[in-house]
Amino acid sequence: MHETISIKSIRLLVDVFYRDIRKHPRLGPVFNDAIGRSDEKWEPHLQKITHFWSSLFLGTKTYRGNPLRAHRELPQFPIELFDEWLDLFHQKAAEIFVPEICKEFKVKSEMIARSLKVGIYQMSNF
Ligand code: HEM
Asked: Whose alpha carbon is nearest atom 9 of ligand 1?
């Protein structure tokens, strides 16, 4: 159980989360179609997401990108997939981090998911 957020513990979370995402019956195809199926194709995505979370939690400023634009450019997927994404993410965060830190990932991910949904589906009543 990790008691602190570090680049190492974030990368662990990213690794275990996307390992399951890639095999997920509904989320897997969305990701694999956009990113690819080989580990070589996935590595840059894993690094980018590690930068994303470390910029948020550690202030590393290593993530440069526009998550809303990236998600808007994907072929549209059912909005219900967000709940599955969040459930899996929270499950993995709970396996890796002590409850207090797990909660921080939960709160942040839910906030971001809400703003992505508003931006992607052009609705504001989630
Ligand atoms: C159903 C929910 C979601 C799906 C299906 C999804 C799918 C994807 C896919 C396929 C990409 C890769 C795009 C590409 O490289 O072509 C991506 C990128 C990304 N996703 Fe998600 N995503 C979801 C939710 C989230 C949430 C909730 C977060 C944050 C808490 C998030 C954060 C990111 C970030 C930071 C990137 C990198 C964007 C960039 O290129 O700079 N995603 N997502």
From this structure: 31
Residue closest by Cα to atom 3 of ligand 1:
82
Structural domain including 37 reads: 7-121
Question: How far apart are the C-alpha atoms of 79 and 75, rounded to whole Å?
Answer: 12
Q: For residue 76, is it within any domain?
A: yes
What digits encode the pLDDT tens for the residues 24-75? 999 999 999 999 999 999 999 999 999 999 999 999 999 999 999 999 999 9
Q: How many CB atoms lie within 10 A of CB 13?
A: 24
From 37, 46, 71, give the residue whose CB has the most ligand 1 atoms within 8 Å, as the site to mutate: 71
